[in-house]
Structures are given as C-alpha cells and as structure tokens.
Amino acid sequence: MSSLADPATSRKADAPPTADPRRAFRPDIEGLRALAVLVVLAFHADIPGFTGGYVGVDVFFVISGYLITGLLLREALATGRVRLAEFYSRRARRLLPSAGLVLAAVSLAALVLIGPLSRTDVYHDILAAALSVSNWRFISEQTNYLAAGRDPSPLLHFWSLAVEEQFYLLWAPLFALLAWLFRRGGAERTPARRHRRNRRLRGTLAVLVAVTTAVSLLLCLRWSQDSVSLAYLGTPSRAWQFGVGALLALLPTGLRLPAALRRCCGWAGLAAILLATVWYTAATPYPGSAALLPTLGAAAVLAAGLPGPGDDGQLSYSAARLLGTRAPRALGRLSYNLYLWHWPVLVLADDWTGRTLPWPVKAALVLASALPAAATLRWVERPLRRSPVVTELPRRGLSLGLTAIAVPVVLALVAGTGTLHTLGSAAPVASAGLPAGAVTGGSLLVGGAKAAGSGPVIPTPIQARNDYPPDGDCEVAPAAVSSPPCEFGDLSSSHRIVLLGDSHAGQWFSAMLGIAATRHWGLEELVKQGCPLPQLSVVNPQLGHTYTECDSWRTNTVARLRSEPKPDLIVIASLNRYTDNQSLLLNAWNRTLAPLRALGVPIVYLTDTPVPGLDVPACVSDHPGDLGLCAVPRSQALWPDPLSAAIAAGREPGVHQVSVNDVLCPGSGSDCPAVLDRVLLYRDTAHLTNAAVVILTDRLQQLLSAQGLLGDGWTTLLEDGFQGPAGSRPNPALWEYDTGTCYQGCPAPHWGTGEVETMTDSTANVRLDGHGDLEIVPTRGGGPSGAWSSGRIESRGSSFAAPPGGILRISATIALPDVSGPAATGYWPAFWTLGAGLRPSFSSWPGVGELDAMESVDGRPSVFGTMHCGITPGGPCDEPTGLGSGEHPCAACVQGFHTYTVEVDRSTSPEQVRWYLDGTLYHEVTAAQMDAATWDDAVHHGVFLILDVAVGGSFPGVYGGAVPTGATQPGHPMLVRNVTVSARAGN
Fold first, then answer.
1. Phi, psi of 810, rounded to the nearest 5 degrees
2. How far apart are CA 978 and CA 385, in angstroms?
3. Alpha-carbon torsion (39, 44, 49, 51), positive or negative
4. What are the backbone dihedrals phi and psi of residue 714, each rounded to the nearest 5 degrees, phi first?
5. What does pTM read for this prediction?
6. What are the E-state strand segments in 805-906?
7. Mean per-residue pLDDT for 127-145?
8. Contact 725, 625 (CB under 8 A)
9. 38-66: average pLDDT
C-alpha cells in the first residue's frame, strides 16, 4: 500500500516548501509502518495468535491520510496552491515502478504455475490492478454468490492500493481547488492576510474532512450490516480512516500536548492495535464498529509523536522513541515492497503445490519474499525516485509511471489472449446439442462412455464457469426478503410444480422446467441464495451478519404458498452443510416441513448433490490429461443426510425423496468424479453445471414418475441399476439363474430352439462389471471346437402385469455384443418376457404368451421385436415365427447403449402391445389381430423377465448362423445398464 513508501516520511529534500514548524520527516511513522506490515504478513501466513492481523491495513490508511494531507497542506499554506503535476509525478515514480514490476512478474509466473482457466482470472486482476480498480473488481466477485468458490487471487492485496490511489485522485484535486479559491478570493501582500487566508483554508478543510469522515463512517456501519464485501473493500466505506489521519494533520499548528499525555496516548494506541490483532478473528464482523479500535489506535500513535514544547516528539520511554529505532525504521522502509511481493509468493506457492501450505512453510515463504522486496527497493524504487533526469520535470515522472503500468498491461493482454484461445469459445452451451441422458443405471449418458466418445469435455471449463440455470433474477440476492413472480412453462395450466430452496434447489431449474413442459404444466421458482431451507440460524458471508433476511424470506414464502392455488408438487432442496450437527439439522427441517405438509401437497426432497469443495472447472483446465486428479473422495463429497435417512425410514409422512447421487458418484468407488462420460459436472465448488442438469432431466423425471409424483400414476414394480463390485453376481433378491440346456421338465432339449450353449451360474458368464453394468458373456472351452457356455437370468417376480385399463412398461438399456461379421456367427442376445403360467407348466407355450422386447442375431445391424401367442404351428401369431417387426435396422445398436421398451396398453381400444427403440415406436400388435380368448391368454396376466445370450439355434440359422463356426469369437458380452418395470393404473 502506498503509505508504506510515502515520500513525506522519507526525505526532507522531496518535500515542498513548508509553513509548518513541525518537520516533515518522522522516524516513528516508519516504525509504525513496520508494525502494520508485520501483523498483515503474520495474518497472511496463518501464524497462530495473529488472527486479526488484517487490521494492519487500517493502520496504513490512517498513516496515508495523515501524510498526504500534511504534504498537501504544507504546500497550500506556503505557496497558496497545489502543484498537481508534481504531486502525481512524485506518486508515480515512487509507487508505480515497484507495483508494475510485481504485476509483470505475476503475469509471467501465471504462465508456468497457474492453469489456463484460473490464469484468465489473474490477467483480469492485473488489468484491474494497473487501472487502480482492484477493489471494485473484487467487490463484484465477492458479492456474486453464484461465482463463489474461486481460488484466491495472487493480486488480492492490490485492493488496498486501489483504495489509496482513489483517495489520491480525489483528495489532491480538492486541495488544489480550495487553495486556488482562497488565493483568488483576496490579496496576500501582507503576512497577516496570508495568515488569515491560511487559517480559513485550514478551518474549511477541517470541516470538510470532519463531515466526510462522519458520512463515510456511517456508510461503513450501514454497509457492514448489508454487504460486508462492499464495506470492507469499498472506497466510500474506508474514506473515514483516511479522514481520521487527515484531521490529525489539520490540527492547529500551535497545539501542544503535555509529554505525559503523549506517552500514555502512544502506548495506548500501540496496545489498541495489538489487541485488535490478537483478539479479532475471521468471525469478527468487520469493518463496522470493530474497525474503530485499530483506527483510533493508529491515530493515537501518530498524535503521540507530534512535537511538543521543547522536544521533537521522540520522548524517552515513549512509543514514538521505540518505533523510531533503527530496526523498525529499516523494516518500515522495506514495507511497501514487502507488502507487494509477499502475497503473490504465498498464493503461487499454493497453486504450484496444489494444496494449502502449513503456517511454518508460509512463514518461511514470507521471509523469502523479503529478497525480491529488498532487490526492488535497491535497484528499482530508490534509483528511479532519486534520478535527477526523472525528477527534473513532472512529466518525466508521470511518463515513468505510465510505462511501469503499461508493461504488465501489455503482458496480461497478450498472454490472456493466448490463454483464451487455448480455452476455446466461452459461448453458452446449446442444450439442444447435449447427448441424451440415461434414464436409469450407473451411466450418465445413454450408451455411457462409448456414447460420449472422445474430445473435449462438455461444457468446456470456460463455459462451465458461467453455465448457470437460465432463471434470470429468480435466485434472489441475500438482502431480499421475498421472491419476485418467477413463473415459467404453461402459465395457463391449472397444474404447476413449485421449486423451493437455496441455490442447490435453483440448480435444478432446467430439469424442473423440462419436466413441467412435457406435461404442459407451469413451474414456480422460489429460491434464495445461501438461505438454508431448514430453519437454521446462519451468518451470511455477503452480508456479514446473522441471516435474518433468510428467516423473513422463509416465512414470506410459506405465506405466499398458502395464498396461491395449490400446486401439484413441491420440490425442495438445500445445501446439506450449513451445520454438521445432524440432530439440529433434522429438527430444523421438521420446523420447515410442518407448514409445507399443512398445504396438503406432495413434497419431494431432492437429496443434496455432491459438494467437491474445489474449483472443478479450474482443476479440469489444469489437468486435461488426468481428470482423475479432480475427483473428490466420496466421504468428502457426500455428507450424512438426516432428512434422507428419516424419509427412508418412513418417519416423514407426506415427504418423498429422489436422488441422482448413484450416478454422480457411480458404483462402489471411493471417489466422486468431476467429469463423467465426458460431461463436466460442476460449475464451481458445489453446484452442477446446467448442462449436467439438462442431461439428468429424463432420469429425474423417471424417478418422480416411478413414485407417482407427477400425477401420471406410474409406479415402479422393478428397477435394477446393477450396482456392485466387479465380478459379483446380480442381486439375488431380484434375479435367479436358468442353468443347463432347458428348464427342469422341459419337453425339448437345447431350450427348444436348437441352441448349443450350456447356461451356467458362473461369474465367468454372468457378472457385474463394477461400473453399473451387468455382463452376460458367452464363452468357449477347449479351443475352436470346444463346448459353449453362456448366461441366462430371469426375474424372481412374475406378477408384472398391465392393470385393467392401464399400461405395463418394460424397459432395459442394453449394449449388444460388440462383434460382427464371421466372428459373430451364432450370437443371439435377447431381452424378453414369458407368461407367469410357464413356471409350473412348460407345456403351455406359446398360448401363455411371449414378448420379445429385443432380439439380435449374428452381430447384424438390426434388432427384432416379436409377440408369440396361441398355438403352434400356425395360429393367430403364425407360430413358431410370431408376430414380429422383422429385421429393424439399427446400425448403432452394436456400438453403444440403447433403450429397448415394450408396453402392454390396456387403456386403448383395441388393446395394444408396442415396441420402442430409444423412445421411437417401431412395431405394434393389437387385440384386433386375433380372437379375444387368445389375446386374453397371452396378455392379461403377469409375466417374468429374461436376459440371455444364446449361441446358435433356429433363429440365427435363418441368417446362416445356426451353428457357431471356428471363426466365432467367444467373450463378447451383452451389457445391461438397467432394467425397469413400471405400471400405470387405469382411470
């Protein structure tokens, strides 16, 4: 900060003519600068006991106000004017070369030590620092809740320099204007007239400073209640501290304090500064009234050093004498450059190591930063400050300052442009171009990693930074106590969803709007930043006080819901980390849920998503070749959730829950990824990217539908995402094995179709892959002529039926064996159902019905859907062929996951069975195609599900693959990502 190197305390030769008998040079001020910088450095190094070391900044502000006002006042009183060009020339040649050197060094270091995305932030910081507006840049970032979670800037400390430079820019011209007005107002031919003019000027300035100081202090106190970042970093809210120093400089020349009083004043001032240093912490509301202690303490030390009757201010046994000794003065002379260098060293060291360093290491780094600080003082600041060539004309000093700033600006612009080029376009992600999300299972996308392919992540890191939900200003700011009208979707509909909570609810906006849009419903968003939906008392970091605005917003929001038409569904979500006291959190939730339950509306709790706790886009940008470095331990990303546990245990009546955490933290691994299936999941340290939310929309819709929460009546009868360790068996509560070559008591060998494999329950043939997929693998033993084995499992449940007037939906997401040509001869993967009546009597086929949701043979780029019924041969279903779709082309079906669905629809007339591939209808059979009795026998009963990969048989034989050949390759699995059976009751 500029007071650290202020010329007014450095050399008399630099000072303008003086009309004040008090000398310009005061050694105790150099010592006070040393104390101030020491506590700041100790605070930044996290040295124990210096938790309030940030008050050193306040001390510097008081010193600056005192010195600059004294400097300007002496010139105005002595000459009747202020030479602005000379004033700014002195500032420029003393302050800007050192600052420009640090900015240039940070610009170059960022190329090596900081990843591309974070580097762009640093270059913006350099530009702001060079233009002396750092404080306003950091204010905008600190108050932007949605941009929270960024790593600290290596130039964060330049905010205080910006505040001081803005003070210079305003204060000096004001002095010059007043001096000119008073000089113009009357002749100055006699000393008496000059004395009267000077007295009026001093008095006017004192009144002006006193009023400004009072107004600024009131602003500081007010803003400390509403916006702590604005109060802490804002120039208007800090001006009063400069004003306190300025008022000291404006004291009447003849004022003399007794020596004893000055001694007491000096020691009391030092004690106040040190008390604030050790007593204050990061939790202290600041600046506010707490800033009075160090500010008045610094003023007391300055007042104690004023010369008295018969002395020079350096009284024996006084604080001024201690501060004026050699060691403090030496550190005080170095303080400006030390302040400039130490913070970039600390931050860049953290970036380089990738972790927060312990305080002894930080302390050592602060000491090491004294080396470049001393070098800058020795070879940059002093030579340029004393150069006769530079000091001869004011414009030369100004030119030097502009050059010192232009160099880092050019470096930042050039390097920043190159970095932006490597990061790619920052244009928003087009939702329409996003890959399809999987509805169930452990994969984010339909087709999983194979469908994701290769290339850059989506969104790119630079896009992710701003990939917010498109809900405008509906996530209301901390100071707001009510939400504006935020209604979306079909506003004419009598049906609507309410999305309620904090920003972790707001992140689901696009998904909720998509779900509402598919039903032509409306969506109402009631979301407040940083406001826990459970009734907890928290401190808001933007406001700097207890978040009473959150309490008011909660109350107003519930009252609003009472007054509005009843919604169809209330979806609630909230960050789960406002407290780690599980009992307190659950009680707080229940206080919120009680009035919501009273509305008589279904409530669904969206379980809180993982919280990585690191700047994910920056990490992905830093490690594009090893994204695993950005994964976060599961225990860190997922906290215990007492509300989720209570809902699962049935202790929260009327409250349902859904969760997507099984896909965001897939399988049983120890980590939660930052990127899944090439989708960048997080936009910051805690929130999902909007792209990830859009991809998760269909999954979320299925989860809500499965619980009948969307008013469409769907109920999940069976769901399996095949989670479990690699090599383990599928869930025995859901699945059983078929083994051998036919059912027990089966009337025909080879499963009745001529297959050559033996089905086993070995994990060599049926197993989980550990990533959310089931593998069914055909194997062959003993070489090309060896015996084939494979796997066939069926659901234990056999009562899956369409209710009268309703619909049964059976769906699976499957990747067919990735094999084709001669190597695929004889492959016969299938997903199908049989009527429950077959289990006691296998002689009832085909009358009991069979629905083949998916069959494929010989690795051909096609699939089949077929219904079997009636009698064989012949009959209404033309057995044994069945009523099939024929070979439905699907070139991509052997290259990735696709969803196969069969629906039995008893809500239409005539009733139907329909086949879908990835949601597209491609085949149907209706009751009109057969007699009522045959349809009834085939459709109006429960079924069980079968998944298998057969080898050989009559169906492959139609295409030349009845008997696998020596070229047929074993070991290519059919992968099953999920199986879901759901039903909707009739009206």
1. -120, 125
2. 74
3. positive
4. -75, 135
5. 0.70
6. 807-815, 827-835, 850-855, 862-868, 883-884, 888-889, 898-905
7. 83
8. no
9. 95
* Encoded tokens for 705: 């539908």
* Stated length of the chain: 987
Using an 8 Å Cβ cutoff, are 285 and 224 in contact? Answer: yes
Contacts 24+ apart (CB under 8 A), 374-379: 374/334, 374/337, 376/98, 376/101, 376/102, 376/337, 376/340, 376/341, 377/98, 377/333, 377/334, 377/337
What is the rounded CA–CA span in Å between residue 370 and residue 325?
20
- Give me the chain's average pLDDT, please: 88
Distance CA 362, CA 366 (A): 6
3-class SS string, 375-426:
HHHHHHHHHHHHCHHHHHCHHHHHHHHHHHHHHHHHHHHHHHHHHHHHHCCC
Residue 790's H or E segment, with its range, is strand 788-790
Helix or strand run (H / E) with residue 176: helix 158-184
Contact assessment for residue 412 and residue 952, using Cβ atoms and an 8 Å cutoff: no
Measured distance CA(188)–CA(203) in Å, rounded? 18
Distance CA 577, CA 151 (A): 20
Helices marked H in 672-817 — which ranges? Answer: 690-695, 697-706
Tokens of 35: 């104390």
Question: Cα–Cα distances in Å, from 709 out to 159, 310, 674, 714, 860?
Answer: 51, 88, 30, 8, 41
Q: How far apart are CA 622 and CA 418, in angstroms?
A: 15
Angle between helices 326-353 and 359-368 (to 10 degrees): 120
What are the residues whose beta carbons fall under 8 Å from the beta carbon of 814, sequence distance 6 or more?
829, 831, 854, 897, 898, 899, 900, 974, 975, 976, 977
DSSP E strand stretches across 635-691: 655-658, 671-672, 675-676, 679-680
Distance CA 956, CA 828 (A): 7
**DSSP letters spanning 449-494:** HHHH-SSS-BS-HHHHTT---S-TT-EE-TT-SS----EEE-TT-S
Tokens of 54: 């940030």
Which tokens hold the place of 983?
Answer: 């039903």
Q: Which residues pair with 343 in a beta bridge?
A: none
Contact 24, 77 (CB under 8 A): no
Q: Cα 310 vs. chain centroid, distance in angstroms?
A: 64
Backbone angles phi, psi at 796, to 5 degrees: -65, -40
Tell me how many helices (H) and strands (E) the chain has.
Answer: 32, 32
DSSP state of 536: -
Q: Is the peptide bond before 846 cis (omega within 30 degrees of 0)?
A: yes
8 A C-beta contact, residue 458 and residue 434 = yes
Q: What is the token pair recorded at 942?
A: 């429960």
Cα torsion 443, 445, 446, 447 to 10°: value is -70
What is the distance between the alpha carbons of residues 913 and 926, in angstroms, rounded to a whole number? Answer: 6
Amino acid at 817: P
Cα-based distances in Å from 432 to 242, 493, 617, 651: 55, 25, 22, 41
State the amino acid at position 170 in one-letter form: L
For residue 914, CA distances in Å to 585, 838, 929, 955 come to 48, 22, 14, 22
Say which residue, 842 or 573, is predicted with more confidence. 573
Side chain identity at 55, as an amino acid letter?
A: V
Residue 258 amino acid letter: P
- C-alpha Rg value of the chain to the nearest Å: 38
Q: How far is CA 708 from CA 372, 441, 499, in A?
A: 67, 20, 18
Q: Tokens representing 544?
A: 């700097």
What does the alpha-carbon distance between residue 625 and residue 454 come to, in Å, rounded to a whole number? 12
Q: How many Å apart are CA 567 and CA 564, to the nearest integer?
A: 8
Kindly state the tokens that stand for 919: 């949601």
Selection from 607, 608, 618, 606 nearest residue 674 by Cα:
618
Structure tokens at 430: 């087009």
Q: What is the pLDDT of residues 330-352, one digit of tens each?
A: 999 999 999 999 999 999 998 88
pLDDT digits (tens, 9 = 90+) for 911-950: 999 999 877 889 999 999 999 999 999 999 999 999 999 9
pLDDT in tens, 651-677: 888 899 999 998 999 866 678 999 998
3-class state of residue 291 by DSSP: helix
